[in-house]
What we know:
The chain is mainly α. It has 2 domains: about 1-105, no CATH class; about 105-165, no CATH class. Helix content is about 50%, strand content about 0%. The protein has a two-stranded antiparallel ribbon. The model has no long low-confidence stretch (mean pLDDT about 90).
Amino acid sequence: MNRLWERMRIIPTTALVVAAILYLTLAATMWLGPISHEREVQEWPMVLKLVLTFVAPLIVSIYVLLVGFVYADARRRAMRHTMWTLIAIFVPYGIGMIFYFAMRDPLPAPCPQCNVTVPASFTFCPHCGFAIRPTCSQCGKQVENSWANCAHCGTKLPKDVPQTAA
Ligand SMILES: [Zn+2]
Ligand SMILES: [Zn+2]
C-alpha cells in the first residue's frame, strides 16, 4: 500500500482538487436531490442510497485521479503526455488507461556524469554528451556489448566496449 501511495504522489494537485470537488458535488447532489426529494428513491434500502451517495462519486473521482496520474507519468517519461491524457479520458471503460500502462516507455534515469534526467531511449546525454549506452567509436551509433563488430558501419569493436572518456 505504501509503494502504491509513493507512486501516486506524482498526481498533479489540479487533479486532486478536481477529484475532491467532483466527489463532494456529486455526493451532495445525490443526497440533497433525488434521495431527499424523490418519493420512489426514498423507499429504496438505505444501503443502496449510501452506495449511490458515497461510492458512485468515488469511482468518478478515482477516474479523475488516474487521468492525472497518466498525465504526470507520461510527462516524466518524455512521452506525448497530452495525447495520452486525452486517450485516458476519452477511450471508454478505462481501455485507454490499460493501453497506456501497456505501452509506456521506461522511466528516465539520471545521466551518470552530470545527473540531468535523460529519457531511457536516448543514447547520449543531451546536456553533457556522455554516452549513456555503449557506442561505436567510428560512427557514434549505439552498439550492444555482445557485438564483435558495429552493425551500422562494420568497424571491429573492442572486447569491452569503452564508455566515452569523461
Ligand atoms: Zn549528462
Ligand atoms: Zn559504427
